[in-house]
């Protein structure tokens, strides 16, 4: 992976917090299938890490949690970025051996190669590696992305060792959200938070900073005007956006408030909801 897309020049996703119905079942999945380690755990919460110190995914089992609703706004998937193609090869070999198939899919996106699966509650997960940015094709400020068949055998041929969980420098590469409409969504993420649209597909925007292929994907594939899910449903609780410094974060807060968006300060964190009810912690 190339660090310039996740450093002091970029705004990027740091951590994802999701709601689940059975914490112990989910911990087993995220450890044994995905390869996380548990950083800390309480009765209703587990923080997951790849390097033993950095939280990447937090699982929460709220009291009275209900199963995931279909056709709503909310999480489409969060994406775990591996350092190399060989790491994706080890992960694919592991998935084949485990025979885990819930939500399983695969795609070549030109800029990246990806595997898809769902956790036991139906929360979508992508596990991917990036092709070198020198191989990405840009034209008129747009990066060329598509969904074509993955060369799975070519990836498997990259293996140079056994799967041993997630590499320590694994990060959250991006998040992809179902939203209610693209117009208000674009105003929030582009004019408000300061992202740029780098790819448009039918019913979807892909946005980034620092010329990454995308830090946030946004789509209306569940239907324009899709319902905002109830707070006690499985799905996204919140995700964090990491800003380069407090000044840039404050500028984003000011732009959002000028749009009439309510931003709540909670200690060192600013909390905001996008127009589709997706909660974001600005850190």
Automatic annotation (TrEMBL):
Q: Which SUPFAM superfamilies match?
A: Glyoxalase/Bleomycin resistance protein/Dihydroxybiphenyl dioxygenase
UniProt cross-references to InterPro entries, sorted A to Z: Glyas_Bleomycin-R_OHBP_Dase, Glyas_Fos-R_dOase_dom, Glyoxalase_1_CS, VOC_core
CDD domains from the UniProt entry: VOC_BsCatE_like_C
- Any idea what this protein is called? VOC family protein
Query: PROSITE patterns per the record?
Result: GLYOXALASE_I_1, VOC
Q: Which PANTHER family match?
A: CATECHOL-2,3-DIOXYGENASE
Species this chain originates from: Salinibacillus aidingensis
In terms of Pfam families, this protein maps to: Glyoxalase
Q: What is the lineage of its organism?
A: Bacteria, Bacillati, Bacillota, Bacilli, Bacillales
Which segments constitute the VOC domain?
12-130, 171-283
> Which keywords fit this entry according to its UniProt record?
Metal-binding
């Amino acid at each position: 992976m190339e660090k310039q897309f996740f450093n002091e020049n970029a705004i990027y996703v740091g951590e994802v917090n999701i709601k689940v119905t059975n914490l112990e079942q989910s911990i087993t999945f995220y450890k044994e299938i995905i390869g996380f380690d548990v950083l800390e755990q309480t009765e209703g919460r587990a923080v997951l890490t790849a390097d033993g110190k950095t939280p990447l995914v937090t699982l929460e089992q709220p009291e009275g949690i209900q199963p995931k609703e279909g056709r709503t706004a909310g999480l489409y998937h969060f994406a775990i970025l591996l350092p190399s193609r060989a790491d994706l090869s080890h992960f694919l070999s592991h998935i084949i051996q485990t025979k885990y198939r819930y939500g399983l899919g695969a795609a070549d996106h030109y800029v990246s190669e990806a595997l898809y699966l769902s956790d036991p509650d139906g929360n979508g997960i992508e596990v991917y590696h990036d092709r070198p940015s020198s191989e990405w094709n840009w034209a008129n400020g747009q990066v060329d992305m598509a969904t074509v068949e993955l060369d799975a055998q070519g990836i498997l041929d990259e293996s140079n060792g056994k799967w041993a969980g997630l590499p320590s420098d694994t990060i959250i590469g991006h998040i992809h959200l179902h939203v209610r409409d693209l117009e208000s969504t674009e105003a929030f993420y582009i004019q408000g938070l300061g992202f740029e649209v780098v790819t448009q597909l039918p019913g979807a925007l892909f946005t980034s900073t620092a010329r990454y292929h995308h830090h946030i994907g946004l789509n209306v594939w569940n239907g324009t005007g899709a319902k905002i899910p109830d707070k006690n449903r499985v799905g996204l609780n919140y995700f964090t956006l990491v800003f380069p410094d407090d000044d840039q974060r404050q500028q984003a807060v000011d732009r959002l408030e000028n749009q009439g968006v309510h931003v709540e300060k909670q200690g060192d964190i600013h909390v905001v909801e996008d127009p589709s009810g997706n909660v974001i912690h600005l850190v």
